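Shipment paperwork, digital attachment
Item: protein structure file
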Amino acid sequence: MMLLLSSIKCYCLMHRADCGFSVLPIYLKKGIPFDTVTFTTLIRGIFAESKVKDAVELFKKVVREKICEPNQVTYATVMNGLSKRGHTQKTLSLLRLMEQGNTKPDIFNYNIVIDALCKDGNLDAAISLLNEMKQKGIPPDIVTYNSLIDGLCKLGQWDKIRTLFSDMALNLNIYPDVRTFNIVIHGLCKEGKVADAEEVMKLMVGKGVEPNIITYNAIIDGYCLRGQLDGVRRIFDIMIDKNIEPDNISYNILINGYCKKKKLVEAMLLFCEISQKGSKPNVVTYNTILQGLFEVGRIGDAEKIYAEMLSTGTIPSISTHNTLLNGYFKYGLVEEAMSLFKKLERKREDTSIAIYNVVINGLSKNSKLREAYAVFEKLYFIGLLPDVRTYNVMINGFCLEGLFDEAKDILKKMEDNGCFPDNVTYNVIVQGFLRCNKISEMAIFMKEMAERDFSFDATTTEFLLNVIRVNPSVLDMIPELSSEKNQ
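Attachment content:
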């Protein structure tokens, strides 16, 4: 029996649940009854392969045909599989089904549903479920509260978090663990409340809970987001003094902070420090330093870093190639950009629509509109569908050249292909009309924008104000603005 179950587990871990099913006939042949553990293992394996429908069907079959009695672990497995794939309501429905059946839900089942509701931002339902648990005599645990606190942090509801902390300690004798404090610290830092986060860390230490690498990384990131590099370095040094070794995430956050401040000397020193400590920069580290180098125009150094990245066996991501292409186009190095792009095309690496968008945009901004259009047209032949950004980039290119008939053709093609224009599309076209002082045509598009509930963005508004400043009579040429003026 144990050998058969071990075989099923191994197949499921290898993402071959189908092979796990091939073991079941041996149960029948040897007269071994099917048990809950076997089918729970298979259901978990099917979910691991993202075959949600198949996993649910197997669960239903087990219940319907009374093959074996699902226990709380079986229900938890199905709930966990559903919740992790965004099926929160189905998870909640399964909990309600349990409540009516023989197998009553335990704390683990409730925690899965509460966590799913919190991740959906449905905190009222999550807190309501918490109160239900208490009424039924099922005491919540630290996992329950961590989920609720995480959800409330994301909504910035700090008063409710304080209430939960009081409820935990005073009424249930549940004390925050390192994860609880880290959730709060991370939430505060994301809102820019880094000083408050440090106060929470002091409270944490006072309660006998030692901060870990996640705690320090959250505060370092908070200071980086605020551009306060002195604070970053101070926390980094405290961490080292406490013998907590920085990980790649620590270095990546710090390098990113220095790069954003254009302090590339410090960023490069940190980059070298990773290898000196016996670790290895990862793809995020390389992407961050590449972005920083291109920002300050150090093209040669960026190319050396990219070459080093390839030599160490670190596989570039789409973000890596986007950074390189954007960097080349930014400094007018069109040949270098196209050489890299053609190499990617030949190797069929990262030839996603995101890469093509970068190339089309880069060519357009470097006065290579014909080449940009050729790349755009090529998409249909290679079976890659343009997205709304592709069309917007192409429309912007034509508008910048004053080629409005061509821009309108792209707009029509966009809608014919089932890709609907967005607010950016119309703002790009209106900006083009404003540049060329085509006010009557702009007024037509303004009407279309209003019909589609689109509005001017900050750039378009600035363009329009500049035009009106030079020529106030423009107001009378635009019916919407003219009527507002006369009110």
